[in-house]
Amino acid sequence: MDLSTASQWAEVIGLITILGAAIYSWIQINELKKSREGAASLSLGALWQDTEFSHGCILIFRQPDNLLSIEEMEEFHGPDWPKVFTVLTTWESIGVLMHEGHLEWHIVHKLYSGSIIRSWEKTEKIIYTIREATGIESAFEWVQWIAERMIEFNEEIPNEPAQLAYKDWRPPARRIP
Asked: Distance between CA 47 and CA 34 in Å, rounded?
């Protein structure tokens, strides 16, 4: 084999190596994304196991609709007030993370749409009062954003309860290696 033929073979082998590495990298990146999405979904689901968060949701759902200020809300909830604030800041964080693509829409929707919408309904007047009093239009902006997106989505695609929507669901067949 002469030097010219050997260099051509070396170029072909180099190209195959580069393509193989690119394909392998693409596969690895996709697996990493799936892993990240799975971890984010698990951490979302774990929120309900946090007693401060769960209790805060219940407190918001049970509060009267006529509260108009953060002071009234704080007075109504008393020493449990920090739990309520935790829920609102959690919705704020989830809104930002979902908007930026770090959380998957459908998972957030299935887990929290009802709670987010109800929280917004119970705190909307209060949030508007906070914005007006402080002049900070961005106060709880992501709570409003995510609630409005959930409401719009539910209007376009009615949210059928899981026990009805997936009543015919069966687990996939188990693959035995």
From this structure: 20
Radius of gyration from C-alpha coordinates of the chain: 25
pLDDT-derived band at 67 (thresholds 50, 70, 90) equals very high
165 falls within a domain: no
Q: Are 107 and 44 spatial neighbours (Cβ–Cβ below 8 Å)?
A: yes
Chain Cα centroid distance, residue 56: 18
Write out the residue range of the structural domain in which residue 6 sits: 1-37
Give the Cα separation of 66 and 58 in Å (integer).
Answer: 17
Total domain count, the chain = 2
Examine residue 42 and state whether it is found in any structural domain, yes or no: no
- The residue whose two tokens read 């979904």 is 41
pLDDT in tens, 137-162: 999 999 999 999 999 999 988 778 88
Domain identity same for 88 and 55: yes
Contacts of 45 (CB under 8 A, 6+ apart): 111
Distance CA 40, CA 103 (A): 7
| Reported confidence tier of residue 44, pLDDT bands at 50, 70, 90 | confident
